[in-house]
Amino acid sequence: MSVLDLFDLHGKKALVTGASSGIGKKVALAYVEAGAEVAIAARSLDTLTALADEIGAGGGKAVPIACDVTQQDQVTAMVDRVTAELGGIDIAVCNAGIVSVTPMLQMSLEEFERIQRTNVTGVFLTAQAAGKAMVTQGRGGSIITTASMSGHIINIPQQVGHYCTSKAAVIHLTKAMAVEFAPHNIRVNSISPGYILTELVEPLADYHRVWEPKIPMGRIGRPEELTGLYLYLAGAASSYMTGSDLVIDGGYCLP
């Protein structure tokens, strides 16, 4: 087998949440390029439909699905639709996430819980539903969660303690699922990006000049610089890896 064959996704069926923009969109496009059929999910169906049309025009296949990952009935329906329309699910990328800048001394309980519901509960519900479908299929699979370097460090000067809490939880949740899902040949790994120029980060432009001097590589990353890692974890190249969290942050966490 060629080393390039280890990254080939032809015949694979993938689900990517948070796919309407940023990291999720780039991952979905990368999976299609590698040969997979992809279900793309987010809250905004209009944006997803435009992306699905773009993928279809290039000869790929994408199924757009509107889903609020904090709602179990919507998540269950989403995975059911993926398996019905694509003929199964081999890869699930639990990528949907949100952030806000709020000092914890002024933070309401509602704001804290809002972040946890999307970033932690949404990951759990998506991974659980995908895992159940993979068990039923009996051919294993790969689940990838998007965590953050914020699960390893506390960001400054922006005050995002609720976000850091949620991403630390995602990392440990990933490890727990990896242990429990391993007997079913389902691998579960997380990726912890650093500062990446996505729609979540663009509104924080005032912080960019503060962050960049602290990044050993001297710049904020681009979403497409993560896609190779998502591709690696999706396919045969990472067949002996589970329960790992991979930080890709330009060296920010090193000093």
UniProtKB/TrEMBL annotation:
Q: Enumerate the GO terms in the molecular function aspect.
A: oxidoreductase activity, acting on the CH-OH group of donors, NAD or NADP as acceptor
Identify one Pfam family in the record.
adh_short_C2
Q: Which Gene3D superfamilies match?
A: NAD(P)-binding Rossmann-like Domain
Gene Ontology BP annotations: carbohydrate metabolic process
Q: Which superkingdom?
A: Bacteria
Checking PROSITE patterns in the record gives: ADH_SHORT
Checking InterPro entries in the record gives: NAD(P)-bd_dom_sf, Sc_DH/Rdtase_CS, SDR_fam
Q: Which UniProt keywords apply?
A: Oxidoreductase
- Similarity-based family: Belongs to the short-chain dehydrogenases/reductases (SDR) family.
Full protein name:
Short-chain dehydrogenase
Q: Which organism is it from?
A: Mycobacterium asiaticum
